[in-house]
Sequence to fold (353 residues):
Amino acid sequence: MTSGADNRSDGFSDALDEGAAAFEQRTRQLLRESVEGLPAHTRSRLTRARYAALAARPSWYSGALRRWVPAGAGALAAATLAVLFLVGPRGESPVASVLASAGPEDLEMLADSDAVQLGRDGDVDYDFYEWAANEAKGGSAPSVGT
Amino acid sequence: MLAFANLGSQTSDLLPLGKAHLRDSAQDGARTLETFLAEVERKAFRIAQIALRHEADALDVVQDAMMQLAHRYASRPAEEWRPLFYRILENRIRDVQRRRIVRQRVMSVLPWRGEDAEEEMPDPIDQAPAAGPTPAAQIESDQMIQALEHALTELPGRQRQAFLLRNIEGLDVAETAAAMKCSQGSVKTHYFRALQALRSKLGDFTI
Fold:
């Protein structure tokens, strides 16, 4: 893994003059002695911290679950949405069925802002409009109010 | 006990081959990770202690870094752990330093500041020097390491980081660059500036 701290060709010490190299060597020695000379209670706490960290490591099955369950759930959801959108619950595309069943009158009505306003008006006498439409066709319409 | 051992071996025999392989490789990974953490924990503690000048904070920082490595990066190749670990460690050190700055600013405007100063007093037992012989050379060495630590705390953070990663952990230029998330050229620049600054402060620094 590592380490070439005492290796002179590791890229750090190539450009050092003799005095700098000696200073570096001295400081390194001091720092490493201080690492080795840590008091017992500090070493003990570091050991406990290490065990706590290892206990926090995810187990192999939870790691596999964490890796594969979200991926599987996402793929399943995407596939379900794709099937519902493209095929529809009764075997036909919901988008295609809506477009096929819509006549030009429906589209005109949707585009007509007056018709939309009419539909929202609660006081409209729908019987009158039905009678007027039948009269325009020349048919015999029932009298209004019957 | 023997019965339990036999039961365990029988159970492992019953596991599907793929799962048993996964479990075995996970156990190997845990052992490898434990070996790695045991190798770096003291060095990491010293790096954090020099940066923070506080033993309890340094211990917390090292534990956080170990837990994050184990929890999030244990599945990464072992060759990547060292630079990853020291990057996490440095981020934690900076978090603590930022919190200290914020706390100092807040405390400086609070009227009741200083009332809980007693809580901040270090435990004299924790601060006591390690047991062992203390001849004159040891005292001199202790004084030198204290002077070195003091000089290191006065360095800019990146220079200190490059210097400590090199001289405590022994990372080479490429590993230090990965740990510091910068180019190898920047690492060399930080390192040589740190070396020059320390030499100018400490002199020849020889016993």
